[in-house]
């Protein structure tokens, strides 16, 4: 079938794909080995598939958004080609290895791996292509070390978490229960319905008919932010600052700017599906999805395949892509997993004269969040003066802040520190007796621009010194002398290796918006061109981008006639009506 795609244009669709591994299992054969584990950073595929000339859907990038959408489309029988500029898949959920230590490049606190309900979007993304990976449950999502001696553990058990918080703020017991109760109300409404494209009217009608109360409840919250709901119930200013930090720790904006739908997902799923670390590292998720996609006929994933521009036909519709090496792939749907700025911005994938006015509205509402400065450290356990096992009370994830005023603004390693020590949960990531520390703090690309090589290295060394001193003083006595080796990644490093504009973590609201209402869905105003990933509804996060992937695949499948939808003109009328209403918001 793969051969057929090289010679037959226009593309004919394959029968709905049963991934070969699943078929092998069904027929009692041993499944083919999935993507070989890369022991160093070489492309994870042994014999790269030839670049197809034409497919149903071509993806620019292989972040979690693109991989989920590609897997879902592949499982529906579409032919897909995923083009990734880097040498491994996963984007922000990628990794690198040094001297036998395996470091997460970005994502490390993983939501969406539950077994129940419909919000377990990473479990589902893998399952679309017949895959599943082992995970280790984390007993504590995060331990906060905050000003005002606020030391709070977010236990996997909801009641245990509430008990700790109420003990610290007994006068706010009612408010605490109401705020987190509202989060559960959002989550329960989402978790009972199939999660698909909100810009596909047929699905919307069906979901409203099947779950009217849940949909009305979501409509109640979709235009609101977590800070508004918190202030409805809570008066204590320190507790409100804690809730700001609860939001900031994943949305990088305070509660006032954090959509309530997203807060509902995060603050409930951590106690429902829980936080679970993939055995062998976060990259296992993308490795397995890639393996699953490639087991589907007519589907392939390509590395070192940087897209230079999007191609258009005579009607102005997107019809393919051109790579930096000059090769082209034509497609009925072009799907960009690059950020909105990398897709539509200056020097973006779409030439300036084709950028639709709606993109201007996006830029009026959203700005690039800062990037991070990341410290990756290999640490000797014996030299630390603190127990490092779960039994000794060590947690995998910590957040540390010394001064409330520095939550968002502090530079040079003085602000919020995010700490992830995955070897607390999975010892296979480092040699015996050793730990991996990934510590990161918000950082802006402008701080790192225009420096000579020497000054750049000196700035990295200064960051390391400041952050290690803070950690040693407050959390990990002995850390300085326990470091075997370290590597610092700046905002420039993130820009280079993650292919993200300014190394940004993602779009954040420029000013207070009405919740998620103005976040764009997957269609763009250019025919045939879609976006997926954190520049689309509902924003940042691996499981959030997995949602955008499922939604995108659903809309594309309806547009390509792979799944049923309302008759064309009605579908178009209703979708346009919805997007026009949203644009006014
Ligand atoms: N849970 C956590 O701890 C955590 C931490 C960090 C990031 N994240 C989140 O992970 C999410 C990432 O998902 P995403 O789907 O939006 O994308 P992504 O940024 O992870 O992936 C995009 C991919 O597209 C590739 N790419 C960009 N331009 C290209 C081009 N021109 N040609 C070919 N390839 C190109 C990049 O190399 C990258 O691999 C973000 O929301 C981020 O906030 C989570
Ligand atoms: C039509 C209309 C508009 C409407 C109607 C109604 C309805 C039906 C609605 C519906 C809706 C929906 C479906 C929605 C959905 C949503 C979702 C899914 C969401 C999700 C979300 C998620 C999220 C946000 C997540 C996130 C996460 C993150 C970001 C994470 C991060 C983390 C980090 C950074 C960590 C760090 C720390 C340390 C290391 C310590």
Automatic annotation (TrEMBL):
<dbReference type="GO" id="GO:0031969">
    <property type="term" value="C:chloroplast membrane"/>
</dbReference>
<comment type="pathway">
    <text>Carotenoid biosynthesis; lycopene biosynthesis.</text>
</comment>
<dbReference type="Pfam" id="PF01593">
    <property type="entry name" value="Amino_oxidase"/>
</dbReference>
<dbReference type="GO" id="GO:0016117">
    <property type="term" value="P:carotenoid biosynthetic process"/>
</dbReference>
<keyword id="KW-0520">NAD</keyword>
<keyword id="KW-0150">Chloroplast</keyword>
<keyword id="KW-0472">Membrane</keyword>
<dbReference type="InterPro" id="IPR045892">
    <property type="entry name" value="CrtISO-like"/>
</dbReference>
<feature type="domain" description="Amine oxidase">
    <location>
        <begin position="67"/>
        <end position="555"/>
    </location>
</feature>
<dbReference type="InterPro" id="IPR014101">
    <property type="entry name" value="CrtISO"/>
</dbReference>
<dbReference type="GO" id="GO:0016491">
    <property type="term" value="F:oxidoreductase activity"/>
</dbReference>
<dbReference type="InterPro" id="IPR036188">
    <property type="entry name" value="FAD/NAD-bd_sf"/>
</dbReference>
<dbReference type="GO" id="GO:0046608">
    <property type="term" value="F:carotenoid isomerase activity"/>
</dbReference>
<keyword id="KW-0274">FAD</keyword>
<protein>
    <recommendedName>
        <fullName>prolycopene isomerase</fullName>
        <ecNumber>5.2.1.13</ecNumber>
    </recommendedName>
</protein>
<keyword id="KW-0934">Plastid</keyword>
<keyword id="KW-0285">Flavoprotein</keyword>
<feature type="compositionally biased region" description="Polar residues">
    <location>
        <begin position="37"/>
        <end position="46"/>
    </location>
</feature>
<keyword id="KW-0521">NADP</keyword>
<keyword id="KW-0413">Isomerase</keyword>
<comment type="similarity">
    <text>Belongs to the carotenoid/retinoid oxidoreductase family. CrtISO subfamily.</text>
</comment>
<keyword id="KW-0125">Carotenoid biosynthesis</keyword>
<dbReference type="InterPro" id="IPR002937">
    <property type="entry name" value="Amino_oxidase"/>
</dbReference>
<keyword id="KW-0809">Transit peptide</keyword>
<feature type="region of interest" description="Disordered">
    <location>
        <begin position="24"/>
        <end position="48"/>
    </location>
</feature>
């Amino acid at each position: 079938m793969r051969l057929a795609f090289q010679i037959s244009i226009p593309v004919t669709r394959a029968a709905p794909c049963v991934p070969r591994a699943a078929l092998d299992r069904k027929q009692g054969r041993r499944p083919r080995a999935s993507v070989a584990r890369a022991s160093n950073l070489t492309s994870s595929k042994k014999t790269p598939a030839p670049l197809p000339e034409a497919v149903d859907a071509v993806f620019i990038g292989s972040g979690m958004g693109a991989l989920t959408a590609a897997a879902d489309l592949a499982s529906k029988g579409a032919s897909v080609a995923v083009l990734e500029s880097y040498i491994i898949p996963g984007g922000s959920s990628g990794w690198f290895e040094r001297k036998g230590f395996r470091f997460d490049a970005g994502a490390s606190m993983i939501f969406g791996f539950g077994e129940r309900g419909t919000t377990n979007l990473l479990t589902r993304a893998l399952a679309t292509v017949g895959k599943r990976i082992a995970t280790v449950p984390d007993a504590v999502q995060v331990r906060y070390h905050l000003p005002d001696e606020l030391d709070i553990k977010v236990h996997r058990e909801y009641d245990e978490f509430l008990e700790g918080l109420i003990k610290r703020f007994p006068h706010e017991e009612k408010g605490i229960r109401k705020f987190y109760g509202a989060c559960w109300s959002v989550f329960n409404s989402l978790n009972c319905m199939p999660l698909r494209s909100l810009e596909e009217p047929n699905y919307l009608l069906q979901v409203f008919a099947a779950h009217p109360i849940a949909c009305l409840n979501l409509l109640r919250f979709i235009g609101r932010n977590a800070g508004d709901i918190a202030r409805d119930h809570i008066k204590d200013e320190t507790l409100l600052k804690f809730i700001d930090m609860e939001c900031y720790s994943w949305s990088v904006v305070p509660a006032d700017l954090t959509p309530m739908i997203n807060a509902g997902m995060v603050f409930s799923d951590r106690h429902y599906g829980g936080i679970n670390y993939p055995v062998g590292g976060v990259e296992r998720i993308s490795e397995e999805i890639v393996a699953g996609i490639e087991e589907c006929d007519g589907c392939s994933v390509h590395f070192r395949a940087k897209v230079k521009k999007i191609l258009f036909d005579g009607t102005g519709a997107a019809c393919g892509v051109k790579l930096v090496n000059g090769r082209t792939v034509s497609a009925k749907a072009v799907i960009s997993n690059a950020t909105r700025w990398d897709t539509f911005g200056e020097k973006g994938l779409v030439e300036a004269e084709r950028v639709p006015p709606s993109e201007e509205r996006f830029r009026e509402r959203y700005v690039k969040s800062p990037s991070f400065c990341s410290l990756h450290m290999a640490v000797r356990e014996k030299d630390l003066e603190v127990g490092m096992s779960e039994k000794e009370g060590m947690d995998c994830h910590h957040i540390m802040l010394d001064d409330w005023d520095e939550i968002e603004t502090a530079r040079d390693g003085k602000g919020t520190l995010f700490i992830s020590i995955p070897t607390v949960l999975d010892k296979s990531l480092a040699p015996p007796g050793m730990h991996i520390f990934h510590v990161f703090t918000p950082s802006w690309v402008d701080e790192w621009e225009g420096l000579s090589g020497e000054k750049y290295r000196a700035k990295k060394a200064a960051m390391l010194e400041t952050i290690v001193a803070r950690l040693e003083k407050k959390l990990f006595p002995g850390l300085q002398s326990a470091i075997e080796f370290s590597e610092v990644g700046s905002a420039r490093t993130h820009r280079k290796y993650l292919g993200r504009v300014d190394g940004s973590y993602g779009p954040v609201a420029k000013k207070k918006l009405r919740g998620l209402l103005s976040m764009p869905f997957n269609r763009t105003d250019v025919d045939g061109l879609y976006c997926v990933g954190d520049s689309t509804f509902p924003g940042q996060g691996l499981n959030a981008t997995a949602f955008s992937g499922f939604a995108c695949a659903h809309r594309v499948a309806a547009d390509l006639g792979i799944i049923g939808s309302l008759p064309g003109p009605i579908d178009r009328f209703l979708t346009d009506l919805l997007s026009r209403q949203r644009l006014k918001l």
